[in-house]
Design brief:
binds magnesium ion; binds adenosine-5'-triphosphate; 6-stranded mixed sheet; alpha/beta; Rossmann fold; 4-stranded antiparallel sheet
Length: 266
């Protein structure tokens, strides 16, 4: 599987991905390679297919009715090249974690339980080590100091930004290798946005990070690479400085300078 592909410093290789819902074609033949242990930002106007591309990687798109897709998506997990459609979806979704735009902790479970429930159900960590594991993951997500005295409180008591970091801790507790974040700072204040941006930069030490963002400024602050999508196609992929300073396509330049306004949320 994946023969002939070069995975040198790559974590994901997508080959000619097509996706439609009902009779509407949404992703129109996309090939893209995501670098290993780096942050790639996906930018593009609203409706360009950013979320569906991200959800294709860990097959969350399988849950959407009337959706059809074809093409190949190879990932390196546990040191082996695997095609995502050949994998057990629950294994895939553990190893390729996903953080939604709106934080979705289990509201009535405690802060502690939110972090460890997945690791517990999947027997990823020995029972006696679970609390230590939760502490480690809350630290990794930059939330420990704020919650260490209230671990038994329900998650709904946390602020939006804290809930988002809790969801990141919960995802990290599943021992992922690839992390997908869909506009993880939308709706957060400047303090929490900064916390999460710093966190993403730390995470790339150990994980491959792909983040959808509607903010070109955010991509400039955190990303090593930028993928620019437009109308279901990959228009340009390059290192961040190149996309921002000298993109090779006029459409990319129009988008980053704010001249492609159709459907762009600001
Ligand atoms: N569950 C769904 N059912 C039907 N159409 C959908 C569904 N999800 C997405 N689409 C359509 O697919 C297209 C791409 O959607 P997607 O959510 O990937 O866009 P996006 O680039 O993430 O946009 P945004 O910046 O607004 O989040 C849009 O036209 C959208 O209406
Ligand atoms: Mg989206």
């Amino acid at each position: 599987m994946g023969k002939g592909l070069s995975f040198d410093k790559k974590a994901i290789i997508i080959k000619d991905l097509h996706l439609s819902i009902g009779n509407k074609e949404i992703i129109k033949g996309m090939s893209i390679e995501f670098p290993l242990k780096a942050i790639t930002a996906i930018i593009g106007p609203s409706g360009s297919g950013k979320t569906l591309l991200l959800k294709s990687i860990n097959r969350l798109v399988d849950l959407i009715p009337n959706l059809k897709s074809f093409g190949e998506i190879f990932v390196i997990l546990d040191g082996e090249v695997k095609e995502v459609h050949s994998l057990d979806p629950s294994y895939l979704r553990r190893k390729v974690g996903y953080v939604f735009q709106n934080p979705n902790p289990f509201p009535h479970l405690s802060i502690l339980e939110n972090v460890i429930i997945g690791a517990k159900l999947n027997s990823l960590v020995k029972k006696k080590d679970l609390v230590k594991w939760a502490k480690e993951k809350l630290e990794e997500a930059g939330l420990w100091e704020e919650v260490k005295d209230r671990l038994k409180e329900p998650a709904w008591k946390l602020s939006g930004g804290q809930q988002q970091r809790l969801c990141i801790a919960r995802m990290l507790a599943l021992k992922p290798e690839i992390i997908l974040l869909d506009e993880p700072t939308t709706g957060l204040d400047i303090y929490n946005t900064k916390r999460i941006e710093e966190l993403m930069v730390q995470l790339k030490e150990n994980y491959t990070v792909i983040a959808v963002t509607h903010s070109v400024d955010q991509a400039a602050r955190i990303a090593d690479y930028i993928a620019f999508l437009y109308d279901g196609r990959l228009i340009e992929f390059d290192v961040t400085s190149r996309i921002l300073k000298s993109p090779s396509k006029e459409l990319t330049e129009k988008f980053i300078t704010g001249r492609v306004l159709d459907g762009v949320r600001r």
